[in-house]
Structures are given as C-alpha cells and as structure tokens.
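Bug #77: duplicate submission created two jobs. Keeping one. Sequence:
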Amino acid sequence: MYDMVHRMGKAELAALIARNQNAPDPALLREAALFRDRHYGRRVILRGLVEFSSHCRMDCYYCGLRKSNRRIRRYRLDADQILNCVRDGYRRGLRSFVLQGGEDAYYQGERMVLLVARIKGEMPDAAITLSLGELPADLFRALKEAGADRYLLRHETADDAHFARLHPPGQTLSSRKRCLYRLRELGYQVGAGFMVGSPGQTHEILAEDLLFLRELQPHMVGIGPFLPQSQTPFARETPGSLSLTLTMLALTRVLLPSVLLPATTALGTLAQDGRGLGLAAGANVLMPNLTPIGQRGGYLLYDGKIGIDDGTEEGLQQMLQSIRAAGYEPDLSRGDHQDFRQETTPYYL
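Kept job's structure:
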C-alpha cells in the first residue's frame, strides 16, 4: 500500500495522513525503515552543527530568533571561531558540517564566501552544508564556487495561505521556492523541509508538502514538530504531535527513498526518545552540536531546546552510544546523497 504514495493525489495523501495521525501504522514504519536500509544500510550519518549567529533580519512568527524578540541574547561567532568549531569536529572524526544561522546580513556576502573557501582549503575532504536563508542568485553561485556542497532552506509549508499565516508581509512562498529551484540548478545537494503541527496546518496542507517534495526531489528534508517560543506571536499555541511528525517522516522516506532525513533536535525536545523514534521511522541523520557551549543559550528557535548545556565531547559520545544502543552504526563520513556519492570508504567511529 505505502509503496503507492508516489502516485497518490492530494485527497488520497490527506486521508492517509489522517488515518496515521494518532499513531503511525507499524507497516508504514517497517516500509520506511526498509527503504532507508536499502539505500544506506543501518548507518546513521553525523553532521557537526555550528550555529554561528542568532542575529536575524526576518520576523517569522514562530521563531525565537525573529528580529522583534528583544529578550534574546544575541551572539555572532567570528570567522576564526567558526573555523575552530569545524576543526574541533574534524579532529573528532567528523567529515560533514552544517553552518547555520539566522538571516544575518553580516554573513550574507563575501565574508561567508571567504570562510567557506578557508574551510575547504584546510579540510578539502569535508562536506559543507549552509543554512543562511534566502540569498541572491549570484551569492548562491559564489558560495558554491567557494566549495559549499549543500544548502538547507526549509520551505516550512507548501500552501501559500498557510505560509502567509506563519510569516509577515514581504515573505512569500514563491520566493522560497525560486531559491530552492535555483539551488538545484547550481548543483547543490538541496534540502527543503517543514514543521508539523504549526498553527493553521491541516492534513490537506501536509499533503501539499508531500506533493511539493515529490516535485522538487530534494536530496535532504528537515521535518520537525512545531514547538512554541515564549517571545513569538505563537507562544501559546499547542506543540506539534509526536505521532504525526513520525508519520510525516515515514511518508517522506517512502516518497523519497534515498533522501537524507534527519531526526531533528526539535523531535528530541518534544519527546525523550524522539530522535530514536525518528530513526525507527526512517530517518538516517543526526547532528551533534559543535557550537561553543557558552553561546548555545542564545540560539533558541523554540523553548526547552535540549543539549544547550552539554559539552561537545559529552554530546557526541551520548549520541554515539544511543545510535549503537538502537542497533545502528555511526557514520562520520561526508554522507552524500547517492546522486553525489564519491567512491570513498565511509569512516566509522
């Protein structure tokens, strides 16, 4: 049944999501895990995460980094600090890194191009994923030429009206989609993604997300539950559902069998074993945090975020232990999508 997801229309997908909203069908979870294992085996790919800036020019209604939040402790790592975070992860065996920040104008230009070039010049066998928001086409191109391998730009919702409910005027879904298609044209490994349970979301809107993913064919998809943040207009909204998030992870895996699919920190924040349950639903990526511990409290997209007090070594070792305890093998290699995979031997710790 679930192998027919790629042929379903919006109404069929919405009905399927509704049937699985309270508890994902065990058959769906088994099929998702089977597709994941077929393409990646029992490997869980680790990507070192550097949250380098909590400054943001945007004002998204759901995000704690929004520019209207006057109570957040803003920070910005300089280029040497970011490079040292990557070096630290590299020494620990990691070969894949994610540089993520708010839409900080300070780093939306030549500074980031030079930083990417420095990292690739020093660690040419490492893969770099950027998550910097919407950028001009020429900057996307310059970053790619400097050595960036991947770009994560979550679309958050594929429904225009719902996008407008989550964002202030001036931000549009059409602009977000243009960036995603431009990134594909430039040869990036492209990541999209969405929240589950955001205010106003329906089963039909979630079905629209799946249809968009089917059209875009991204190489990475970030899916996590909506979690409220106290300094946003959605502070009193209900968090997204664990079971529905797992259902959407599993359906995405079945829809895009070779996709790189993280079990997100938000999922681990929602439930104690959330990330483990995410792996069981077909996810195959985890992201240990390499951000300096003294800065992590300033990068609160939502309330209650886990891991902000864990040192890099402590967090990495806990993650490795949990991966093995769940019957998987940690993979610290570049972890490329199969369409970009190089003929190198994965590095296991």
